[in-house]
Amino acid sequence: MLSLNYLRIVCSSRALLHPNWLMTRRQCVYEAFTCSAHCMSTCFPKKDTWHSNTNLRKERKLIYYTGRVSSPRNYCTGRVKVSCWNCKQPLDKTPAFFCMSCKVVQPPDDGTSYFKIMDCDCTFTLDTQKLQKRYLQLQRSLHPDNFSRKSVREQEYSEIQSALVNKAYTTLLKPLSRGLYMLELKGMHIEEGTDSGADSEFLMELMEINEALDEAQTPEEANKIGRDTKGKLTDLTKEIDDALLKGELQTAKALLAQMKYYANIEEKVKEKLSEFM
User: Fold this and answer.
1) Where is the J domain (predicted)?
2) Residues 190-210: pLDDT tens digits?
3) Most Cβ neighbours (<10 Å): which of 32, 48, 206, 231?
């Protein structure tokens, strides 16, 4: 094993012969540690981004274990220009579904929000018509049927991208799932099946609405409950939007919890109306 003194002599000699050598090595080490730390905090997808979709778990394997160690997608995309996996040309926008040079489908960009995927403003009152238009456009171009004669890799990427677009669309389409997702982006989550945050007066009101719906004898009675519920959901939508704009996340969380109950009643109204048909 080399002695410490010997290593000092070697390093000192190199530093004297090449004055920039020591600074270059220090800079490389600093940049390596900086990029690694950045990647650990930003580049790996969150748990809820991928959910439990089988194809999406397959994508993790494709992206991180293909052996393409030099690929920018495996490391820090915030500092390195992302390039096409096929022709190596830089991708000019994020998210990039296709390479503009060779036209092949690309894998998903890690950590990209549903709002960015669907090209929508990150707001609770987004334009649903624009959302639907974007969805149809992406599905027409990304549908796996379009890649049946392409390479296996392109087929897999198209399946993953198509599934991701579906998930983004269904999440952002309805106000409740959209609001819950916005809270998740900010690190907040409403646990399923819990009502500890609801006060007794509110729960009593819900109980009375459910009882009235169960006892409804005509479509008119059920429709009246449906209209009242829709009005409450409209009011809640305005209140939630206002709370999110002000950054009052706890208030938005409580209002979204109420919206979940009324959304359930709205579904029960539809079921009740189907019984009269």
Assistant:
1) 113-185
2) 765 545 567 889 999 999 999
3) 206
